[in-house]
Specification:
The chain is α/β, with parallel strands linked by helices. The chain is built from 6 helices and 11 strands.
Amino acid sequence: MVIKNKKRSASKMKTAVIILAGGHGTRCGFPRPKQFLLLGGRPLIDYSVEKFLSLHPGIIIAVLVNNYQKYYRPHPGISLIAPGGKERQASVLNGLSSCPAGTELVIIHDAARPFFPLAGVRAGLQLLANDKYDGLALASPAVDSLVEVNDGEIVSFPDRKKIYQTQTPQLFQYPAMLKACQKLCGQKSFAFTDDLSVAYAAGLRCSLVEGSQMNFKITTRFDWELAGQLLKTGF
C-alpha cells in the first residue's frame, strides 16, 4: 500500500519574519535612516510590521542599525531586535541566526518596501509548505525594453518576456537558507544583490511568485514623495 504524503498548511508551520532595517538610507539624502522617518504619521518600518502581524507569524525579528534608539521606539509587534551588519548579507545572517529553534519557514523583507502584496506572501508560504521549492521571491515581469552594455557598447537586447524584477518579501525553507548563508555570505567571490541569489548559488530549488508594480523600494526622495501620495489616496 502506498501512503501519500499529506500536504501541510503553511499556517501551521513555525514561521519567522526578518525585517531588514540596518541601512542608513544615504541615497535619500535624509539626516537620519529613512526606515525610521514618519511616512503618513508612522515610522516607515511599522507599515511592514503591521502587515506581517496579520499573518500571525511565530516571531518578527527587526535587524536595526546599532544606534536605532536615537530615532525609533520599536513597534510592540517586533519580538526581537538583531544588530545590523556592515553589508546586507551580514544583516541577513544576523537575522537568520536569531530565529528560534524549530523555525521551519522564514520571510526576509526590506523595510523600505511598505506596499508589498500579502496575497503573494501567502501563496509563497503555501508553496514552501508543500515542499515544492526551497526559496521564492515576489517578482514582477519587466515592462521596459532591456539592453546589455559592456564598456559603453551595446552587446545584446535580452528578451524581456524572460526577465523579471525580484522584490521582497523573499521566502525560504529556514534550515536550508541558514546553511546557504553560513556557507556563502561574506565570501568576496560572490556578489549577491538579494537573498534568492544566495539560495540559487547554493543549489537550492528557487522560483518566483506574483508580486506587484506597486511594491517598489523607497530609495530616493522621489520614491518617498510617491509613497506619501499613495497613502493619501488610501492605497
